[in-house]
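Chapter review: from sequence to fold.
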Amino acid sequence: MEYRDYYQVLGVPKTASAAEIKKAYRRLARELHPDRNPGDADAEKGFKEANEANAVLSDPEKRTKYDELGANWQAYQQAGFDPNQAGDWSAFGGAPGGMRWRVHTATPDDLGGFSDFFRMFFEDGPMGAGMAGAGGASGQSGASGSIFGDLGGFTTRSRSVQPQAKGTVEVTLAEVARGTERTVALDERRLQIKIPPGVSDGAKIRLRSEGVTLTVRVKPDPRFKREGANLVTELPLSLPEALLGAEVPVPTLNGKVKLRIRPNTQNGQVIRVPGRGLPKRGQPDQKGDLLVTARVVLPKLDDDARAEFERFADAHPQEAPR
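The token string follows.
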């Protein structure tokens, strides 16, 4: 198994402080993240190595053992030995004389973040399942026996689904219209998240490589109500504007536009403005419409105006709309 120099992987000296290691890991994680490098096998490999290195060097106890064991670290770690417990294994893998080891039960957590080669033996993969049967009678995995010899007492557990880290990310309606990015802090990690245009409230964004599921929450906008890809808004109109027609400004997510109001526009009438809504799901180049509901605001009449309106009503009688 190839030895990895974790300090070299993160690009820090062996004297690096915990803060320097954390900073170096975050920089690499951002640069090499699969979401930023789709299809790049080298970047994916580097991302996994950076996670593996950080898992060891950010843990003071693991880092101390890694510094002591050097090239023997991976065999030590994956075998599950504890140098602080009884059992004389001083000759294992060239370990320093006098160091004491004990075998313990391996769990999926012990194996997480290290070589995929070892996963084949200790999890229920095609090879692991077959080798586990070889030593089943004694409770010892065939994989452990074939690699480490008859150590005895080394057992494995079936693979269990690890719980996903969950979080919430909030966006505005304007960000839904154009798509956006967010930096999310979760479980001591900072993740750069791309949020596609047209995303719905309650949508799930899953980062399988990170074991993270994020729920999108769209903040309410006082100007608009959302109906799929369409936006609905109200437009107050004066009585002359509604009766005689006019051009009035109406809000959109990209600023105001002039809307032509036809004569005799009725209160509650819906005016459709094509292409001024949100991107359609899976079709960001196509947009919904803006639906504008006319709300006619009646004037308050003084005595003179009321008398004039009565003369107008007498001259132009209207049937009761009920």
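Two observations follow directly from the output. The radius of gyration is 34 Å. The chain has twelve helices and 13 strands.
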